[in-house]
């Protein structure tokens, strides 16, 4: 089978190679999946660079999220051969993956591969963060990197709950698109002073920040919080830690906390997990919440896909197909 792997951590364009490998041997509790589509996420890039919370066991394939078809069922028959499934695993940029059968999620009828392969990480992260945030109708939420896949999903899900959303972008042409999704305030941080605009337009600040960027922008977003506000950090697109203002934390009684999807899902009981997946899949199937695709490439053209992923102003996911 074909697989995209790296034998040392580094920049993806420098360390990733395409090679032939043996098809993985599955364990009794696993199903063998023929992967049909996977999207490129920021976490994939950080993993390849050795900067993610999971350390790669080299050599390693890249990618965490995918959709595929069951080629061989597990011994208990939890999933049947031919079933199309959504799954997460370490290393999905290959033709076949073995995954514990109890972690596979059947793809709802009518959902395309392009949607299914991005129906897990970003939608569930946005859902989980909103559920955890304590935000209610009428509250203000600030989202950094509003035009990201996560940002657009969080805007749409917040709108369902009548939460008011402000978000940051770096290009004016992204403003109208985000407002059409439900954002009430979109700030171009290349031209506008974020704290000043927020304080003027939101009646003195926001209740919660979802930060994916870190660095200086994360610090500015922190200063936009009302007293007793909460910043939830789930990404580090700038690759720079947030320089925290201790005075702000103390005198405004602010809270800064991390959010990782894996930890949140593990905290749920079975009913809560089923509700989360049911809610997200229903919204995606009815297109009350939409995801975008920028381009698709066959797995062998992963280098071209990475170039497309790095394009400035990209408004959709780049997907690797088989």
TrEMBL record:
It comes from the Bacteria. Residues 10-320 form the Enoyl reductase (ER) domain. This is NADPH:quinone reductase. The keyword Oxidoreductase applies. GO terms for molecular function: NADPH binding; oxidoreductase activity, acting on NAD(P)H. CDD domains: ETR_like (cd05282). Keywords: NADP, Oxidoreductase. PANTHER family: QUINONE OXIDOREDUCTASE PIG3, QUINONE OXIDOREDUCTASE PIG3-RELATED.
